[in-house]
TrEMBL record, chains A, B:
HTH lacI-type domain boundaries: 4-58
InterPro entries hit by this protein: HTH_LacI, LacI/GalR-like_sensor, Lambda_DNA-bd_dom_sf, Peripla_BP_I
UniProt superkingdom: Bacteria
Protein name per UniProt: DNA-binding transcriptional regulator, LacI/PurR family
Residue ranges that the Swiss-Prot or TrEMBL entry lists as coiled coil: none
Protein's organism: Paraoerskovia marina
């Protein structure tokens, strides 16, 4: 069946297309009699308003945008984003919203995407992820005419935009103190991309905690891939004063670390304790199961979607703590051997 | 800056909004002099056509739709979809396209999404994934007025729609014959969701191959999660005639199987050979690294996007073999012990 247009309704009802538009949009300019006739004809023909037409009249696009400025090769490695997106989508069904997703190589391309989306009115709002120190996106999205946005990240990174965050600093401190209490005195951190704001927050919390405890805390840098996690682990385990415990910035690097330990004959957890971040089903599938800093990423995504709907509805600002990741000790952590 | 509308241009140029619309859309109905004046004013004011306006005039939405009818809890587990989406997106940048993503609970909701997208002209075409036997979506998307679609799956499942496929049957046969050549005579398959067409194709190829070789081939059913993969592995490893080799339908179930084997003291690969599907970075991060059926999922996604653009451009039908997954033996397969 061909799509029913306003012209079809106008012809059938014997009025102008302008009159049909007025009638169907509930605007003044046509008599009640004409409005009733137009609506009856529209229903009879099976007409439906298109999002394009509603968008032109300033109505919602029923679309939320998400730009991921990550290389395709690293996107598929972690389960974080798919779980996060599934969470966002879980809030969409009641509102008939959909997610417009764009994967771009860098921040410049991300800003260009926002510019195009805004000019073409393609989305009602955007979810900004991976905020950085002095992030140019925050400035752009803070302008009075910008797309409504919610920042996924710490309040210190979000400017005046509303943000939903997890208390990563508290989680880092808890994991270091837990390992210290179990007798560990050489605790390493294998962190993610340095330019990301949450990496910096975790780095600082880690440094402060090991310094306050007066212990050694080497830090290794990665790009979240299994390969970079394995490399960092090899460097740590072959160093002169090798750590007895390592905290990783995601799940797949912790998994890779178990492989490197096995390859070197380092026993987990007897010789080496391992803690993963972003607890995932993977962490419970390894042997022994991975101790992890756990938070519900799907529920986090849903929370972000609700705050963005608030923002789209005109609510301003606000900083919302979603959760503090909780340490779930499983089989890869143990007291240090006497 | 407020968005420039056709009304602004009309006011500035001293003509009706209708005349502006005719002039900017290159349609007859205004003099060349008026057209020139309108275009000059539009440029001066910094006007840009909105996708909404272009959509109303039948121009492309520059959007491709993807509906995933999967439970959020299973979506984040596998890396397949994020890699596949990253591949689709890799073809978008040159065309300024974006992906409209919707996660829905079931096929009925997926069909309703297509209906809404079509009625509201929200996408230029859709990528249909996880085709089933007698799939109602194929019939709906085969109607003359349906959204352009490309099926990701076997030709036998795609009706007359264009499809991009991987030769899963050949890959299953190769893995069974490889294990047979290494002396295995009890080879099990741990398969995914029964209702998915590619599961059926793999099941049939597996049954035919083990029958033609005259060996035992138990089949276990899962929902792709690590938990269901672990459960299936426990059933197999505690059965009276336990298999000496198992082929899994994804990577994370194979990983979970390594955990179950360790938990039971079954050595991999000495006592049990394991083959994963959808080779991923995970497969190379385990110890020993997982033998896997390998194909490039990101490149597969890119291929699908190119075929959908062809379809949107009016190319009809066509069945395109993307690749045959290749067996990459690593550390989890070995000859059966004498």
């Amino acid at each position: 069946m061909r799509r029913i247009t306003i012209a079809d309704i106008a012809r059938e009802a014997g009025v102008s297309t302008g009159a049909v538009s007025y009638a169907l949009n509930g605007r003044p300019g046509v008599s009640e009699e004409t409005r009733a006739r137009v609506v009856a004809v529209a229903n009879q023909l099976g007409w439906e308003p298109s999002s394009a037409a509603r968008s032109l009249s300033g109505a919602p696009t029923q679309t939320v945008g998400l730009v991921l400025a990550r290389h395709p090769s690293t996107l598929g490695v972690e389960s974080f984003y798919m779980q996060f997106i599934a969470g966002i989508e879980s809030e969409f069904a009641p509102r008939s919203y959909a997610l417009l997703l764009q994967v771009v190589p860098d921040l410049e391309a991300e800003l260009e995407t926002y510019r195009r989306w805004r000019a073409a009115r393609r989305v009602d709002g955007v979810v900004l992820v991976d905020p950085r120190q002095d992030d140019p996106r925050i400035e752009v999205l803070s302008r009075p005419d910008a797309l409504p946005a919610v920042v996924v990240g710490d309040s210190s990174l979000a400017g005046d935009l509303p943000n939903v965050w997890t208390d990563d600093a508290a989680a880092v401190r808890e994991s270091v103190r837990y390992l210290y209490a179990a007798g560990h005195r050489r605790i390493a951190r294998v962190g993610g991309l340095q330019e990301l704001g949450h990496t910096h927050i975790r780095d600082v919390a880690f440094r402060e905690e090991v310094e306050s405890l007066g212990i050694e805390g080497p830090l290794e840098r990665t790009d979240y891939t299994t390969g970079s996690g394995a490399d960092a682990t090899r460097r740590l385990l072959t160093s002169v004063d090798r750590p007895t415990a390592v905290v990783y910035d995601n799940d797949v690097m912790a998994l890779a670390a178990m492989g490197v330990a096995a390859e070197l004959g380092v026993r987990v957890p007897e010789d080496l304790s391992i803690i993963a971040w972003d607890d995932s089903p993977l962490c419970q599938a390894t042997y022994p199961p991975l101790s992890a800093l756990s938070h519900d990423v799907t529920s986090f995504g849903a929370h972000v979607a609700r705050r963005l709907f608030d923002r789209i509805d005109g609510v301003r600002g606000g900083s919302f703590l979603d959760s503090t990741p909780t340490l779930r000790p499983r089989g890869t952590t143990s007291p240090v051997r006497a």
